[in-house]
Amino acid sequence: MEQAVIELKRLTKKYGEFTAVAGLDLSIQPGEIFGLLGPNGAGKTTTILMMLGLTEPTSGTATVCGIDATRNPMLVKRRVGYMPDDIGFYEDRSGLDNLIYTARLNGIPAKEARERAEELLEKVGLSSAAGKRTGAYSRGMRQRLGLADVLIKRPEVIILDEPTLGIDPEGVRELLALIRDLSRNEGLTVLLSSHHLHQVQQICDRVGLFVGGKLIACGDLDTLSRELDGGPSHAVELDVSGWNDRLAERLTAVEHVVSVETVDSDALRGAAPGTPGIVTVRVTGTADVTPLLAALVVEHGASLVGLRPMRYGLDEIYHRYFEGGESSGRVH
Amino acid sequence: MAAFIEKLRTAGKERDGAVRTASPFWVMVQKEFGDHIRSWRFIILLAIVTLACVGSIYAAVTALKNGQSDASSSDATSFLFLKMFTESDGSLPNFLTFLSFLAPLIGIAIGFDGVNSERNKGTLSRVMSQPVYRDDFLNAKFVAGLLLIAVVIFSLGFLVMGMGLFTIGYPPTPEEFWRVIVMLFITTVYVGLWLNLSLLFSVRFRQAATSALSGIAVWIFFLVFYSMIVNLIGNVTAPSDPNNADAILRQQDWLMLLSRLSPAYLFQEAASTLLLPDTRTLNPFITQDQAYLAINAPLSFGQSLLLVWPQVVAIVAETALSFAASYVAFMRQEIRSRS
Hints:
The complex is a heterodimer of chains A (332) and B (339). Chain A is of the alpha/beta class. Chain A has helices at 44-51, 73-79, 95-105, 110-123, 139-151, 169-186, 197-203, 221-229, 245-253, 290-299, 314-323, and strands spanning 6-15, 18-28, 33-37, 59-64, 67-68, 80-83, 157-161, 189-194, 206-211, 214-219, 234-241, 257-263, 278-285, 303-310. Chain B has helices spanning 2-12, 24-38, 40-67, 80-86, 95-111, 116-121, 123-128, 134-168, 174-204, 208-237, 245-259, 263-275, 288-293, 301-332. The chains are: A alpha/beta (332), B mainly alpha (339).
């Protein structure tokens, strides 16, 4: 098994009486996009600071790229790019100058620094604004410049703290696509923290739910869904015209299927609400059997009007974990 | 200047065999220096100081033209060049007074938002996440500021010298020249002290305005109130018996020590001793024998230097102290984005 890029063991940070991070264990594999998910004040930023050696842990160790971050922060910082939330630039300097400065701080010679900076500005789509003062940049431009700033030292790991905060949806989409491409094409390990569920859901391989300084759940979405219910991880909604009990029995008999039940058709989804004869059925199971279900319905002589494979969304998981609220049973 | 810095840092180290790369420290110094020079604050400061210098020269030259010929000294032209820095016709303070008044302001203006503005703009956490030692950041702020101050002070000094030469047409002797150079050097160290103090405030206070105000408060305190307070203490602790010479001497020594805690006082003593070679001692009390038997002649350069040596050391020590304080404060702080 490959060695983990980021390995946290019993990591704890206390501020006086207050425990910001309590005994955190976490390991992140190379090439992974890991989402650290939690409400404000959960200790996400503190954890990140400890990984970079910017804050000393009260106890426990943080190992990044095989280096102890507390003992040897310089080596870690050489190999890890960190984008703080609400990143700041020298506002009276241009974007290009800011990037070159960062590169030079990393010991890159002036000429190469300029080349790399121009290349990266091109990549994040800022080459037209390269000479503009960063004070005049919009929020989205600043975040993209921040990404370029993180990448200029050619890191092995990038850590992004709330990278999508305060950007419009289109900007978020572009930024996330950029991050995903980077991870896929250049094998970067990405750790990003966020409290925006949907965004994290879109690009993360695994997520960790972080509340009150503790990692309460960790894994990919399916695992989390399973942990949530301890049961089915897949659900499919079928809109069927010509529904009858025999069909229900047939469906229930399919391997992996746990339950078949009719539900009220969701008016919001606009699936022909109130249309007579159409019944919405939810089938849950432990594996994905969607094609089989469709085939069965058609075979049976009923007509399949709609078919929606569903997964437990992070929203739901988040809500259940954090609020401890009763199960609403709603998936989407 | 940029070329000078460039030379300094490449001379610094050669890493990775053939590839020469600047150490992050000098990269930061270079950037800080550039930022200072481009800032409006620096231009305004420079304008004020230059105006003050030109004014003081004018006053000095007028004074020299009008009345110095019948001065008490038999040798009227002795150290005429130095008089340009210390004489005045009364309309404006002389150069030295101006300098001791404005120098702290330069230091405070350059340093007061050094750390907290970076923190508030979120650039501090970005820089700190690069492979940069934390103390390098503070050191770079200090070194860049000090370099700038040295450039300003020395160019002003040379400006005054040159203009003086031009107007009075009397060239300095080598000794006078060296006296002025050493005085400028001491001024640089003195401004360095204020720079450090304001850096300390900028580490300590999150708001730039608070830090600037604290710096100015300390400045005014030492400039105006400190001597008053020392006088007050002197009055209160004055020995009851005016004939008790021992007690009076001891009390005066004690007051002297108190005054010399103030960097402004130390600087005043050091600079005026260097520019007024007639100053033979900085001790307020000399016995009648000493006064009577002393040869009425100016001190040599070396002797003047010896006389001010403790003052210079004290200023450097105070600088080191405030640097250490800001260093410790900065090292202990946690760096988060914009907080």
